[in-house]
Automatic annotation (TrEMBL):
NCBIfam families: therm_gnt_kin (TIGR01313). Keywords: ATP-binding, Kinase, Nucleotide-binding, Transferase. GO terms for biological process: carbohydrate metabolic process. It comes from Eudromia elegans (Elegant crested-tinamou). Pathway: Carbohydrate acid metabolism; D-gluconate degradation. Its EC number is 2.7.1.12. CDD domains: GntK. Belongs to the gluconokinase GntK/GntV family. It catalyses: D-gluconate + ATP = 6-phospho-D-gluconate + ADP + H(+). This is Gluconokinase. It comes from the Eukaryota. GO terms for molecular function: ATP binding; gluconokinase activity. InterPro entries: P-loop_NTPase, Therm_gnt_kin.
Length: 157
């Protein structure tokens, strides 16, 4: 696509990486500042008219809302004031698949701070996207070319 690519894991704080490395799942308090920083990156790219791909485990609806709207998503009962940052237009791609396939892939990963033992906590936290969120669900059981084609079709349709 020629778009900038960001891996959200590169933006975790040293404290978050240490916690996960010790097998301790992150909580909302750990994740919200990280998600706000990711929102700021996406906002900066939008301001420079640059499309971007962000690989991120935005497991909960509130996490995806923070990516779209920043910290203002946390005060959702307050109406937006004129001139405030408007929501980013983000297509979320929910890569869906059986736990055993994901576990096998994690076992093959080397040099990453998150141990495979945390996979269960990720699934326990997961709130799959639902309407009216802007998303597609793609099966990880498809081939990589099929996955890419499905995502590209959704982006450009």
């Amino acid at each position: 696509l020629g778009w900038k690519f960001y891996d959200a894991d590169d933006y975790h704080s040293p404290e978050n990486k240490k916690k996960m490395g010790e097998g301790i799942p992150l909580n909302d308090e750990d994740r919200i500042p990280w998600l706000c920083a990711l929102h700021d990156i996406l906002r900066r790219e939008e301001a420079s008219r640059q499309d971007a791909v962000l690989a991120c485990s935005a497991l909960k609806k509130i996490y995806r809302s923070v990516l779209v709207s920043g910290a203002s998503a946390l005060q959702s009962n307050e109406p937006e004031k004129p001139g405030e940052n408007r929501a980013l237009k983000i297509l979320f791609v929910h890569l869906d698949g059986p736990v055993d396939i994901i576990a096998r892939r994690l076992e093959k990963r080397r040099g990453h701070f998150m141990p495979p033992e945390l996979l269960k906590s990720q699934f326990d936290t997961l709130e799959p996207p639902r309407p009216p969120e802007n998303f597609i669900t793609v099966s990880i059981e498809k081939s990589l070319p099929e996955i890419v084609l499905e995502i590209e079709s959704a982006i450009f349709s």
